[in-house]
């Protein structure tokens, strides 16, 4: 069994917050997607790694994932050595994704930066035939980056209007992390109700850039091939 796309993140919930609508859209379009987080989230202020793993599995179910795997590279000091690289290569060769989507390798949180870097490099190395592992070489078509804290000019924006609600239901699976008036745990940046308002606003902002209600932005070093140039701007006006 293989998948079309794998989303790699440092922490469970990074993918949902940044591009959960895109993941749900891919599934809705009949593609198979998988999720891999490189850490167990043990440095999080709220919740335990066990609650976070349960929440992540719940979110994966909401999004319709084919699989979700958690690695243990160390939260708050994410390791990026050869051993870690080989674990990512093993997953790429096992699931043979056409696309890899991960964190932009420059973000406020160093774990995000390191994730973007190691996943990009492993995606290339996984295609080296002379790198012998249990499975044959496989190289994804490209690596796309989602945006987190730092903003970069999007290479393209995906219309996620039809799957925005699914994304937010997946985000809501992380009960220990986000706003819960009954929680006795310490308040954090992301548990403030303003955080989810910001996610909503960002979705609307990126949507506005392409003339839709909601959008999710991506950056890539390899631009996508566009077949319908006129259609890509349908319903919009020069502003
Ligand atoms: Zn994160």
What would the keywords be for this entry?
239 residues; alpha/beta; seven-stranded mixed beta sheet; 6 helices; 7 strands; globular; binds zinc ion
Care to describe what's here?
The protein has 239 residues and is α/β, with parallel strands linked by helices. It has helices spanning 14-28, 49-63, 82-95, 110-125, 164-172, 193-209; strands spanning 5-9, 33-37, 67-70, 99-103, 142-146, 156-159, 215-219. It has a seven-stranded mixed sheet with strand order 3-2-1-4-5-7-6, sandwiched between helices. Helix 1 links the parallel strand 1 (5-9) and strand 2. Helix 1 packs across helix 5 (164-172), helix 2 runs antiparallel to helix 5 and helix 3 packs across helix 4 (110-125). The chain is globular, with a radius of gyration of 18 Å. The mean pLDDT is 95. Zinc ion binds at residues 10-11, 14, 109, 112.
Strand and helix layout:
Elements: E1 5-9, H1 14-28, E2 33-37, H2 49-63, E3 67-70, H3 82-95, E4 99-103, H4 110-125, E5 142-146, E6 156-159, H5 164-172, H6 193-209, E7 215-219
Parallel strand pairs: 1-2, 1-4, 2-3, 4-5
Antiparallel strand pairs: 5-7, 6-7
Helix pairs in contact: 1-5, 2-5, 3-4
Bound molecules: zinc ion.
Residues 10-11, 14, 109, 112 line the site of zinc ion (ZN).
């Amino acid at each position: 069994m293989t998948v079309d796309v794998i989303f790699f993140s440092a922490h469970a919930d990074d993918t949902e917050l940044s591009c959960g609508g895109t993941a749900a859209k891919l599934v809705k379009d009949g593609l198979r997607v998988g999720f891999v987080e490189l850490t167990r989230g043990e440095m999080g202020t709220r919740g335990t790694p066990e609650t976070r793993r349960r929440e992540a599995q719940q979110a994966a179910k909401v999004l319709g994932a084919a699989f979700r795997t958690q690695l243990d590279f160390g939260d708050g000091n994410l390791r990026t050595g050869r051993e870690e690289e080989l674990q990512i290569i093993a997953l790429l060769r096992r699931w043979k994704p056409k696309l890899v989507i991960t964190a932009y390798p420059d973000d406020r949180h160093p774990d995000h930066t390191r994730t973007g870097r190691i996943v990009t490099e492993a995606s290339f190395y996984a295609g080296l035939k002379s790198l012998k592992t249990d499975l044959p070489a496989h190289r994804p078509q490209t690596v796309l980056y989602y945006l987190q804290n730092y903003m970069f000019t999007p290479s393209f924006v995906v219309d996620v209007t039809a799957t925005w609600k699914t994304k937010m239901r997946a985000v809501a699976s992380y009960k220990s992390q986000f706003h819960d008036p009954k929680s006795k745990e310490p308040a954090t940046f992301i548990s403030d109700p303003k955080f989810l308002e910001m996610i909503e606003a960002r979705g609307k902002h990126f949507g506005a850039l392409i003339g839709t209600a909601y959008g999710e932005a991506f950056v890539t070093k390899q631009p996508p091939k566009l077949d319908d140039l006129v259609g890509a701007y349908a319903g919009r006006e020069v502003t």
